[in-house]
User: Fold this.
Amino acid sequence: MMLLLSTSDTDLLSGRASGADWRLANPARLSVDDLTPLLADVDLVVVRLLGGRRAWPDGLDALLTDGRPVVVLSGEQAPDAALMELSTVPAGVAAEAHAYLAHGGPANLAELHRFLSDTVLLTGGSSLLPLVLDKVALASGKARDQLVCKQPHQAVAYGAAILAQQVFCQSSGKDLQSICSYDLGIRTLGRDGQPTVKALINRNSAVPASATMTFYTSRDDQTRMIIEAVQKRGEGDAAEEKSLGYFAFGPIESPRKKYPVEIEMSYDLEGMVTITARDPETGKQIRQVMDEETEALDRALFEQQGWLQKIEVNV
Assistant:
């Protein structure tokens, strides 16, 4: 349970109508002695005051020495930095809490309860920032009260149910298409001589997806190709990359410079990435699911081959 102490009766009415587990009171009508019964079984306190600390100094002192998490906020639309600094929760949490209360209404009071449960008490679920519902309603062309999913976890559950119907061939009248959230590719040497990721499957591609590209050896005596699969999002300094692992293709029986090796990358509905390396001249192929076990490849072998510095790609 959470205790909301606000000098705004509108906050208290919204809290009561929210359906969340709030205990409500107006600090302007409380003495310090009145706090003891109000704090019974309470895990967190939100205080919203008009007039700053001087509006309720003794009550704030009692709460701040009690040991429970306390969020102290201004009753105005604009945040009050001095009041926020009194809070015993991180400044970012206090700022978000103020945004919920400033926008007001039962929905935002319910979201505030979920937000604090999730970020402070670590017992809650997902929450929506203020005005998110308005933006979703605008994008969908529907009124807020006509939205099927008003919470992130509801949307995930609803989508999962529709997808399950599709998988088991039971038509729901709605179709969902899974997409790849990242670029998936092979690390190689870019035209500027710097390591880069050559995407085979682009972000937002429909899943399942697969793509093939031909890579070439760089030396006459190269009998093995070391392949690193990478997932990537963004470009330049803002790019996020994660190696999915390495594996080796070989031996190449008749090595020569620019010997072709076809690399096929596939991404399935289970989120698994599979690499197939194929020798187009002999038909030999090796298939590897890129999971935690692929990280066990001897990194010394990767360094020894100098693959990253020497590989050339057919683009």
About this structure: The chain has three domains: 2-130, 132-176, 183-313. Residues 106-121 form the longest helix (16 residues). The longest strand covers residues 240-249.
